[in-house]
Amino acid sequence: LFTGARTAALGGAGVAIPHDPSQNGINPASVATLKRPVATFSATNYVLDIIPAGGIVSFPTASGVWSVGMHGITYGDFERVNGTAGDTGTFGANDVTLDVGYARVFGRGISGGASVGWIRSSIDSYSASALLFGIGVLWEFNGSATTIGASATNVGTAMSSFIGGDDGMRDEVPTVLRVGATHRPEHFPIPLTLIADIELPRDDEATVNAGVEIRPVEMLTLRVGYDALVRYQSSEVDDKSGLTFDDRHTSNFGGLGLRFGFGLLWREYGLDFAYAPVGPFGSVHRLTAHVSW
């Protein structure tokens, strides 16, 4: 939910996109080549009253690029009932994260980065927290036309649990491994970038996400992507485990994997937008604004 609009419009593919602070949550190395400070803010109109929002500030120093970010999610209000289904008011739920990252260029087109963060989740009067780490690397070659990236994010441990506090049963953190590439064809008549990622979540199926960027004019970039174009589906009932193309078009969630968006850039100001259909739940709209100085 904390993904920037650019990555969201590209189907979630973004681990190999350099020079972009909005990718910092996917790959901490993405800011390593920044030459100027950049502030980024993202907000999402999600389904079921879920609203994620947050920002990150990245600033170059003599030794590398530092980033400081804060994000939050509110899940809206829920009706509280007693044992006899009587209405006793409402309660809320929310998450908040704080993180610090560092990235630098090592030479020969290789850059790396690392981050450390703290997350706290609350439901009514209950809460849990975790300490999370991330690490990433980028390799730009072929005249910077091709980039390969890899990262491990949400690596860490829960510090407390919803029930029992520090001594309670703690949930596993949702670690994600990613590897991907971007490529800009040299002789295409207008600037074109191809992006693809393999995503390996700890608590879900492995997926392949892919997207395309095209820039018809200097200040406008158009994007289309597909989330989970290919996925690894496992089955404990039969022997049908394996890779398969997305089949959500056969259900009420038709078109669920498609993503669309655009980016605008004028001088030091930028705005990215992403649109994603969510089947019978409607659609998700995501905005990311950034400014450099």
Can you offer a commentary on this structure?
With 293 residues, the protein is an all-beta fold. It contains 1 helix and 15 strands. Strand 2 (51-60) and strand 3 form a beta hairpin. The radius of gyration is 20 Å and the shape is globular. The model is unreliable at 248-254 (pLDDT under 50).
* Strands in their spatial order, largest beta sheet: 1-2-3-4-5-6-7-8-9-10-11-13-14-15
- As a percent range, the share of strand residues is over 45%
State the separation between the terminal residues, measured CA to CA.
27 Å
The main pleated sheet reads as: 14 strands, antiparallel, barrel
Radius of gyration (Å): 20 Å
Nearest-integer average pLDDT: 86
User: Helical content, roughly?
Assistant: under 10%
Provide the low-confidence segments as ranges.
248-254
Please tally the helical runs, counting DSSP H or I stretches of 4 or more residues: 1
Order of helices and strands: HEEEEEEEEEEEEEEE
Give the strand tally. 15
Helix/strand structural class: mainly beta
Shape label: globular
Topology of helices and strands:
Blueprint (H helix, E strand, L loop, with lengths): L4 H5 L28 E8 L5 E10 L4 E17 L5 E21 L2 E14 L2 E16 L4 E15 L15 E8 L8 E10 L5 E11 L2 E14 L8 E4 L12 E9 L2 E9 L5 E10 L1
Antiparallel strand pairs: 1-2, 1-15, 2-3, 3-4, 4-5, 5-6, 6-7, 7-8, 8-9, 9-10, 10-11, 11-12, 11-13, 13-14, 14-15
Brief sketch in words of this structure:
The chain has one helix spanning 5-9, and strands spanning 38-45, 51-60, 65-81, 87-107, 110-123, 126-141, 146-160, 176-183, 192-201, 207-217, 220-233, 242-245, 258-266, 269-277, 283-292.
